[in-house]
Amino acid sequence: MRSEHIIITNTDLERLLPVVDQHDTPASDSLASELHRAEVVDQRAVPANVVTMNSEVVYEDCASGVQRRVKLVFPKDADGARGHVSVLAPIGSALLGLRVGQTIEWQVPSGTKQLRVLEIRYQPEASGHFDL
């Protein structure tokens, strides 16, 4: 689990609560915990450096230095071949709500990873796309 301060938009929260309710898995339980402790802000007021749903993010595995670009999506839109990572995947739920420069330790199936958000290449809210 993480202790970093995270930010979630009101719209993302409204859309994610049913997702959590529809899944009975450790991943959905973990996401529910994150949602309940997050600072909720209006989608029009979220800082542009925060990872929101449908954001395209570049993160770094701090141990290996490997960088990866992903799009954080709802489970129905997940597609590993296209780099679309579900918010219910360990990496997806770890990235949600983080800001550029923030580092997090997160439990993944192979152990603990430390990730750092390097860049947000696209955030819907910053681009004026409030209906994604």
Structure description:
With 132 residues, this protein is of the alpha/beta class. The protein has a single domain, classed as Roll (Chitinase A, domain 3). The chain contains three helices and seven strands. A five-stranded mixed β-sheet has the order 5-4-3-7-6. Strands 1-2 form a two-stranded parallel sheet. Strand 6 (103-108) and strand 7 (111-122) form a beta hairpin. Helix 1 packs antiparallel against helix 2 (26-37). The longest helix has 13 residues, at 10-22. The mean pLDDT is 91.
Question: What can be said about this structure in brief?
Answer:
The chain is an alpha/beta fold and 132 residues long.
Top-tier CATH class: Alpha Beta
Please state roughly what percent of the residues sit in beta strands, choosing from under 5%, 5-15%, 15-25%, 25-35%, 35-45% or over 45%.
Answer: 25-35%
Radius of gyration, whole Å: 13 Å
Report the structural category: alpha/beta
Domain unit count: 1
Uncertain parts: none
